[in-house]
Amino acid sequence: MYPSLDGKVVVITGGATGIGRAMAERFGAEKAKVVINYFKEEPELNAILKTIEESGGSASAIQGDVTQEEDIKRMIHHAVKTFGSLDIMVNNAGIENEVPSEDLSLTDWNKVISTNLTGQFLGCREAIGYMLDHDIKGSIINMSSVHQEIPWPHFVHYAASKGGVKLMTETLALEFAPHGIRVNCIAPGAIDTPINKEKFDDPELKKGVVELIPMGYIGKPEEIAACAVWLASSEASYVTGLTLFADGGMTQYPGFQAGKG
Hints:
Layout lengths: L8 E4 L5 H12 L3 E6 L6 H10 L3 E6 L5 H15 L4 E4 L14 H28 L5 E5 L12 H21 L5 E7 L8 H5 L1 H8 L10 H12 L10 E4 L15
Parallel strand pairs: 1-2, 1-4, 2-3, 4-5, 5-6, 6-7
Helix pairs in contact: 1-2, 1-8, 3-4, 4-5
Protein backbone atom coordinates (compact mmCIF):
# COMPACT_ATOMS: atom_id res chain seq x y z
CA MET A 1 0.00 0.00 0.00
CA TYR A 2 1.06 3.58 -0.68
CA PRO A 3 -0.05 6.08 2.00
CA SER A 4 1.00 8.99 -0.20
CA LEU A 5 -1.96 8.25 -2.50
CA ASP A 6 -4.53 8.69 0.28
CA GLY A 7 -6.84 11.54 -0.76
CA LYS A 8 -5.11 12.18 -4.09
CA VAL A 9 -7.37 12.95 -7.06
CA VAL A 10 -6.82 10.75 -10.10
CA VAL A 11 -8.50 10.79 -13.51
CA ILE A 12 -8.38 7.54 -15.51
CA THR A 13 -9.50 7.56 -19.14
CA GLY A 14 -11.06 4.31 -20.32
CA GLY A 15 -11.42 3.45 -16.66
CA ALA A 16 -14.46 1.16 -16.79
CA THR A 17 -13.00 -1.95 -18.44
CA GLY A 18 -9.87 -4.07 -18.53
CA ILE A 19 -6.67 -2.44 -17.33
CA GLY A 20 -8.48 0.85 -16.71
CA ARG A 21 -10.93 -0.81 -14.36
CA ALA A 22 -8.17 -2.60 -12.46
CA MET A 23 -6.32 0.70 -12.03
CA ALA A 24 -9.47 2.49 -10.85
CA GLU A 25 -10.17 -0.17 -8.25
CA ARG A 26 -6.53 -0.27 -7.09
CA PHE A 27 -6.34 3.52 -6.71
CA GLY A 28 -9.59 3.25 -4.75
CA ALA A 29 -8.02 0.66 -2.47
CA GLU A 30 -5.21 3.17 -1.91
CA LYS A 31 -7.96 5.59 -0.72
CA ALA A 32 -7.57 7.92 -3.68
CA LYS A 33 -10.40 9.97 -5.16
CA VAL A 34 -10.99 8.40 -8.55
CA VAL A 35 -12.68 9.90 -11.61
CA ILE A 36 -13.49 7.21 -14.16
CA ASN A 37 -13.89 8.32 -17.74
CA TYR A 38 -15.87 6.01 -20.03
CA PHE A 39 -16.69 6.26 -23.73
CA LYS A 40 -20.06 4.51 -23.94
CA GLU A 41 -22.52 2.95 -21.55
CA GLU A 42 -20.78 0.40 -19.30
CA PRO A 43 -22.99 -2.12 -17.48
CA GLU A 44 -20.41 -2.65 -14.73
CA LEU A 45 -19.84 1.03 -13.99
CA ASN A 46 -21.99 1.22 -10.86
CA ALA A 47 -20.36 -1.92 -9.51
CA ILE A 48 -16.91 -0.38 -10.02
CA LEU A 49 -17.92 2.83 -8.24
CA LYS A 50 -19.33 0.78 -5.36
CA THR A 51 -16.15 -1.29 -5.09
CA ILE A 52 -14.04 1.85 -4.86
CA GLU A 53 -16.27 3.39 -2.20
CA GLU A 54 -16.33 0.19 -0.15
CA SER A 55 -12.54 -0.08 -0.25
CA GLY A 56 -12.14 3.35 1.31
CA GLY A 57 -11.73 5.53 -1.76
CA SER A 58 -14.08 7.99 -3.42
CA ALA A 59 -15.40 7.66 -6.94
CA SER A 60 -17.18 9.53 -9.69
CA ALA A 61 -17.70 8.85 -13.40
CA ILE A 62 -17.94 10.99 -16.49
CA GLN A 63 -18.64 10.07 -20.11
CA GLY A 64 -16.33 11.46 -22.73
CA ASP A 65 -14.44 10.84 -25.96
CA VAL A 66 -10.69 11.34 -25.51
CA THR A 67 -10.33 12.44 -29.13
CA GLN A 68 -12.47 15.51 -28.39
CA GLU A 69 -10.69 18.47 -26.84
CA GLU A 70 -13.76 19.74 -25.02
CA ASP A 71 -14.45 16.33 -23.51
CA ILE A 72 -10.96 16.18 -22.01
CA LYS A 73 -11.43 19.66 -20.56
CA ARG A 74 -14.75 18.53 -19.06
CA MET A 75 -13.04 15.59 -17.37
CA ILE A 76 -10.51 17.84 -15.67
CA HIS A 77 -13.23 20.31 -14.68
CA HIS A 78 -15.34 17.46 -13.30
CA ALA A 79 -12.46 16.18 -11.17
CA VAL A 80 -11.76 19.63 -9.75
CA LYS A 81 -15.43 20.43 -9.16
CA THR A 82 -16.10 17.04 -7.53
CA PHE A 83 -12.93 16.47 -5.53
CA GLY A 84 -11.18 19.85 -5.45
CA SER A 85 -8.01 19.19 -7.41
CA LEU A 86 -6.11 17.01 -9.87
CA ASP A 87 -2.97 15.19 -8.77
CA ILE A 88 -2.68 12.20 -11.13
CA MET A 89 -3.72 11.77 -14.76
CA VAL A 90 -3.78 8.28 -16.26
CA ASN A 91 -4.20 8.32 -20.05
CA ASN A 92 -5.33 4.76 -20.55
CA ALA A 93 -8.04 4.79 -23.26
CA GLY A 94 -6.95 3.01 -26.40
CA ILE A 95 -8.15 0.92 -29.34
CA GLU A 96 -6.74 -1.48 -31.92
CA ASN A 97 -7.89 -3.38 -34.99
CA GLU A 98 -6.10 -5.76 -37.31
CA VAL A 99 -5.73 -4.70 -40.94
CA PRO A 100 -2.98 -5.61 -43.45
CA SER A 101 -1.06 -2.39 -44.03
CA GLU A 102 -1.72 -2.31 -47.76
CA ASP A 103 -5.46 -2.36 -47.03
CA LEU A 104 -5.45 0.09 -44.11
CA SER A 105 -7.83 2.96 -44.78
CA LEU A 106 -7.07 6.51 -43.77
CA THR A 107 -10.23 6.35 -41.65
CA ASP A 108 -8.88 3.41 -39.63
CA TRP A 109 -5.44 5.00 -39.37
CA ASN A 110 -6.88 8.29 -38.10
CA LYS A 111 -9.22 6.57 -35.63
CA VAL A 112 -6.42 4.68 -33.89
CA ILE A 113 -3.95 7.57 -33.95
CA SER A 114 -6.62 10.00 -32.69
CA THR A 115 -7.53 7.79 -29.74
CA ASN A 116 -4.16 6.31 -28.78
CA LEU A 117 -1.85 9.26 -29.41
CA THR A 118 -3.81 12.49 -29.83
CA GLY A 119 -6.14 11.53 -26.97
CA GLN A 120 -3.18 10.96 -24.68
CA PHE A 121 -1.60 14.25 -25.75
CA LEU A 122 -4.80 16.13 -24.92
CA GLY A 123 -4.97 14.43 -21.52
CA CYS A 124 -1.35 15.35 -20.83
CA ARG A 125 -1.76 18.94 -22.00
CA GLU A 126 -4.87 19.66 -19.95
CA ALA A 127 -3.52 17.97 -16.82
CA ILE A 128 -0.15 19.71 -17.07
CA GLY A 129 -1.88 23.07 -17.61
CA TYR A 130 -3.92 22.62 -14.43
CA MET A 131 -0.89 21.44 -12.44
CA LEU A 132 1.20 24.43 -13.57
CA ASP A 133 -1.58 26.90 -12.76
CA HIS A 134 -1.99 25.45 -9.25
CA ASP A 135 1.64 24.61 -8.49
CA ILE A 136 0.91 20.90 -8.18
CA LYS A 137 3.81 18.49 -8.43
CA GLY A 138 1.68 15.88 -10.08
CA SER A 139 2.11 12.58 -11.86
CA ILE A 140 1.02 11.67 -15.38
CA ILE A 141 0.95 8.06 -16.56
CA ASN A 142 0.49 7.23 -20.22
CA MET A 143 -0.42 3.77 -21.42
CA SER A 144 1.89 2.44 -24.10
CA SER A 145 2.54 -1.16 -25.16
CA VAL A 146 5.34 -3.57 -25.90
CA HIS A 147 4.63 -2.51 -29.48
CA GLN A 148 6.39 0.78 -28.93
CA GLU A 149 9.40 -1.55 -29.12
CA ILE A 150 8.25 -4.65 -31.03
CA PRO A 151 7.08 -4.26 -34.66
CA TRP A 152 3.59 -5.68 -35.21
CA PRO A 153 2.52 -6.49 -38.79
CA HIS A 154 -1.15 -5.75 -39.56
CA PHE A 155 -1.19 -3.24 -36.68
CA VAL A 156 1.00 -0.48 -38.14
CA HIS A 157 -1.37 2.26 -36.92
CA TYR A 158 -1.33 0.82 -33.38
CA ALA A 159 2.46 0.40 -33.29
CA ALA A 160 2.95 3.91 -34.65
CA SER A 161 0.64 5.33 -31.99
CA LYS A 162 2.52 3.60 -29.19
CA GLY A 163 5.90 4.64 -30.56
CA GLY A 164 4.55 8.17 -30.48
CA VAL A 165 3.40 7.78 -26.88
CA LYS A 166 6.94 6.79 -25.88
CA LEU A 167 8.62 9.88 -27.28
CA MET A 168 5.77 12.15 -26.23
CA THR A 169 6.18 10.89 -22.67
CA GLU A 170 9.93 11.39 -22.69
CA THR A 171 9.65 14.86 -24.19
CA LEU A 172 7.04 16.03 -21.68
CA ALA A 173 9.04 14.50 -18.82
CA LEU A 174 12.08 16.52 -19.85
CA GLU A 175 10.08 19.70 -20.38
CA PHE A 176 8.22 19.70 -17.07
CA ALA A 177 10.72 18.08 -14.70
CA PRO A 178 11.76 21.53 -13.41
CA HIS A 179 8.17 22.02 -12.25
CA GLY A 180 8.10 18.72 -10.35
CA ILE A 181 5.60 17.16 -12.76
CA ARG A 182 6.55 13.56 -13.50
CA VAL A 183 5.51 11.91 -16.78
CA ASN A 184 5.97 8.17 -17.26
CA CYS A 185 4.39 5.39 -19.25
CA ILE A 186 3.57 1.74 -18.75
CA ALA A 187 4.05 -0.72 -21.61
CA PRO A 188 2.00 -3.88 -20.98
CA GLY A 189 2.52 -7.10 -22.86
CA ALA A 190 -0.24 -9.66 -23.37
CA ILE A 191 -2.89 -9.00 -20.71
CA ASP A 192 -6.14 -10.86 -20.07
CA THR A 193 -8.63 -8.10 -20.88
CA PRO A 194 -11.93 -7.94 -22.80
CA ILE A 195 -10.14 -6.62 -25.90
CA ASN A 196 -8.16 -9.89 -26.02
CA LYS A 197 -11.00 -12.24 -25.01
CA GLU A 198 -11.65 -13.70 -28.47
CA LYS A 199 -7.98 -14.44 -29.01
CA PHE A 200 -7.39 -16.00 -25.60
CA ASP A 201 -10.58 -18.07 -25.77
CA ASP A 202 -8.97 -19.94 -28.68
CA PRO A 203 -6.52 -22.47 -27.16
CA GLU A 204 -4.23 -22.48 -30.19
CA LEU A 205 -4.05 -18.70 -30.44
CA LYS A 206 -3.46 -18.40 -26.71
CA LYS A 207 -0.70 -21.03 -26.86
CA GLY A 208 1.01 -19.04 -29.61
CA VAL A 209 0.99 -15.89 -27.46
CA VAL A 210 2.22 -17.67 -24.34
CA GLU A 211 5.18 -19.00 -26.32
CA LEU A 212 6.28 -15.36 -26.75
CA ILE A 213 6.34 -14.75 -22.98
CA PRO A 214 9.41 -16.01 -21.09
CA MET A 215 7.46 -16.09 -17.80
CA GLY A 216 4.98 -18.44 -19.47
CA TYR A 217 1.59 -16.87 -18.70
CA ILE A 218 -0.80 -14.12 -19.78
CA GLY A 219 -0.65 -11.11 -17.47
CA LYS A 220 -3.51 -9.89 -15.30
CA PRO A 221 -4.89 -6.32 -15.32
CA GLU A 222 -4.13 -6.13 -11.59
CA GLU A 223 -0.43 -6.55 -12.37
CA ILE A 224 -0.54 -3.43 -14.52
CA ALA A 225 -2.52 -1.57 -11.87
CA ALA A 226 0.27 -2.34 -9.39
CA CYS A 227 2.72 -0.57 -11.70
CA ALA A 228 0.45 2.46 -11.96
CA VAL A 229 0.04 3.03 -8.23
CA TRP A 230 3.79 2.73 -7.70
CA LEU A 231 4.55 5.24 -10.44
CA ALA A 232 1.97 7.66 -9.02
CA SER A 233 3.19 7.31 -5.44
CA SER A 234 5.96 9.13 -3.59
CA GLU A 235 7.96 5.87 -3.77
CA ALA A 236 8.65 6.82 -7.40
CA SER A 237 9.32 10.49 -6.66
CA TYR A 238 12.64 10.49 -8.57
CA VAL A 239 11.29 8.61 -11.59
CA THR A 240 10.30 10.48 -14.75
CA GLY A 241 10.53 9.76 -18.47
CA LEU A 242 10.41 6.02 -17.80
CA THR A 243 8.74 3.31 -19.84
CA LEU A 244 7.93 0.57 -17.37
CA PHE A 245 7.58 -2.68 -19.31
CA ALA A 246 5.19 -5.11 -17.62
CA ASP A 247 5.31 -7.93 -20.13
CA GLY A 248 6.60 -11.14 -18.55
CA GLY A 249 9.81 -10.65 -20.53
CA MET A 250 8.17 -10.37 -23.96
CA THR A 251 10.57 -7.61 -25.03
CA GLN A 252 13.61 -9.66 -24.02
CA TYR A 253 13.97 -11.62 -27.28
CA PRO A 254 12.17 -14.79 -26.11
CA GLY A 255 13.40 -16.78 -29.12
CA PHE A 256 16.85 -16.79 -27.50
CA GLN A 257 15.62 -18.10 -24.14
CA ALA A 258 16.75 -21.67 -24.76
CA GLY A 259 20.20 -20.59 -25.90
CA LYS A 260 19.35 -20.39 -29.58
CA GLY A 261 21.13 -18.00 -31.90
